[in-house]
């Protein structure tokens, strides 16, 4: 296959389809989503057969148990994909919303209207259910999309692509509105991220290596986050019971997610009282503690190095540091945080306000677990990913994050004098 020619064709088709999707009605796009859900339900045996091929190939290639688990399409996961499509169909449509209309002294009215981004390229690894999640969010927000899944899930993704095509066709939308790249050749990724004439934005979902490569080589804007080095700071004005609940949940509810706490900061004033309670709970859950010198004088912990303050463990390992009050916590977070999610536990309103004002992260929380940093929990219905960038979308990216705004002006024969 001539990869460059193939990807150019995919890009041209996506650009043409984007125009038709953008002008389609909410009812039509919802019909496509619901029809896709029905198509998935009817194609369960085909999906399972295709997924079996991927699993068999994965075992032959030595994929580990965790990767095989992410790759597997169980009946329950197919149910979840179907339910996800129906949920997205039920979400409010952001497209066409006009806000901020004001009259100017000249007599014209000026406001902003929400519009699709156009063509969204999404690059992801292993989990075939991402194909449905990404396609549904892009379609609902009036965009065309080009999906490039991992080579290990090629058969599963192509089976899902057939269901998406059926859903689009039933609603009268072009099947090219959602295209799943048919080749596993990595050169296709290189082409996709360097086609600004066809692609408006790239969303990479995967490991740090993939995201670093996309960020480095792309000629198309990228929505992304690299690391999830998240903090919880326990202030001297914290309620000890709340502090214990929030910190333990932030670390142990799930270890392998980007919004899991990786560093715990404790105010020096209360460290001797609360650290033993925290340590007992973490050790009981099997968490290895790595502490600063002051921490190790109070509890048993491994000596933390400079690397630990920058580490995203994604494992039952936690860095612990005693800091000099709120100033010390903010200074540490703004130096070492990946600007993903950081939380303070305190009963002091003034300190909480300072924390949320001065901590420069995409999600900042008060008396809540960092595990809430998620599109579903934020009421977005679902998310395409999380962005730690400061332009356009920041934090969990849902339907609104896949749109932009343009100015609209209403007059009645007005002219500028």
Describe the structure in brief.
The protein is α/β, with parallel strands linked by helices.
* Low-confidence sequence ranges: none
Radius of gyration: 24 Å
Oligomer: single chain
Derived from helix and strand composition plus strand pairing, the structural class reads alpha/beta
Q: Helical element count?
A: 14
Q: Order of strands side by side in the largest beta sheet?
A: 10-9-11-8-7-12-13
N-to-C CA distance: 60 Å
Q: Helical proportion?
A: 40-55%
Beta-strand portion reads: 15-25%
**What about the largest sheet?**
7 strands, parallel
Total count of strands: 16
Order of helices and strands: HHHHHEEEHEHEHEHEHEHEHEEHEHEEEE
Query: What is the overall shape?
Result: globular
Overall mean pLDDT: 96
Report on this model:
With about 425 residues, the chain is of the alpha/beta class. It has helices spanning about 5-20, 25-40, 45-60, 65-70, 75-90, 130-140, 155-170, 185-190, 210-215, 240-250, 270-285, 295-300, 325-335, 350-360, and strands spanning about 100-105, 110-115, 120-125, 145-150, 180, 200-205, 230-235, 260-265, 290, 300-305, 315-325, 340-345, 365, 385, 395, 405-410. Helix 2 packs across helix 7, helix 5 runs parallel beside helix 6 (about 130-140) and helix 6 packs parallel to helix 7.
């Amino acid at each position: 296959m001539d990869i460059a020619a193939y990807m150019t064709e995919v890009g041209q088709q996506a650009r043409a389809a984007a125009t038709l999707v953008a002008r389609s009605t909410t009812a039509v796009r919802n019909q496509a989503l619901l029809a896709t859900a029905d198509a998935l339900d009817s194609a369960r045996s085909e999906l399972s057969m295709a997924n079996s091929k991927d699993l068999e190939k994965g075992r032959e290639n030595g994929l580990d148990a965790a990767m095989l688990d992410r790759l597997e399409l169980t009946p329950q996961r197919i149910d979840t994909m179907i339910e996800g499509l129906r949920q997205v169909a039920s979400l409010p449509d952001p497209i066409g919303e006009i806000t901020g209309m004001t009259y100017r002294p000249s007599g014209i009215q000026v406001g902003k209207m929400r519009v699709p981004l156009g063509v969204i390229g999404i690059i992801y690894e292993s989990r075939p259910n991402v194909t449905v999640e990404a396609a549904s969010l892009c379609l609902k927000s009036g965009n065309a999309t080009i999906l490039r899944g991992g080579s290990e899930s090629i058969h599963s993704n192509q089976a899902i692509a057939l269901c998406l095509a059926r859903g689009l066709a039933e609603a009268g939308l072009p099947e090219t509105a959602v295209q799943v790249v048919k080749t596993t050749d990595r050169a296709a990724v290189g082409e996709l991220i360097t086609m600004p004439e066809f692609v408006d934005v790239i969303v990479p979902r995967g490991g740090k290596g993939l995201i670093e490569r996309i960020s480095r080589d792309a000629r198309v804007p990228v929505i992304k986050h690299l690391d999830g080095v998240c903090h919880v700071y326990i202030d001297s004005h914290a309620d000890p019971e709340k502090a214990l609940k929030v910190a333990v949940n932030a670390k142990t509810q799930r270890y392998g997610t980007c919004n899991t706490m990786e560093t715990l900061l404790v105010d020096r004033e209360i460290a001797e009282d609360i650290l033993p309670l925290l340590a007992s709970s973490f050790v009981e859950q099997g968490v290895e503690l790595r502490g600063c010198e002051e921490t190790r004088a109070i509890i048993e912990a491994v000596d933390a190095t400079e690397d630990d303050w920058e580490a995203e463990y994604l494992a039952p390992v936690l860095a612990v540091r005693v800091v000099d009050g709120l100033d010390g916590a903010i200074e540490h977070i703004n130096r070492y945080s990946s600007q993903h999610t950081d939380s303070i536990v305190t009963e002091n309103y003034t300190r909480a306000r300072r924390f949320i004002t001065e901590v420069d992260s995409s999600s900042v929380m008060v008396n809540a677990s960092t595990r809430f940093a998620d599109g579903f929990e934020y009421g977005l219905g679902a998310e395409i990913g999380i962005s730690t960038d400061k332009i356009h979308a920041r934090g969990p990216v849902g339907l609104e994050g896949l749109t932009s705004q343009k100015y609209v002006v209403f007059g009645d024969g007005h002219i500028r004098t």
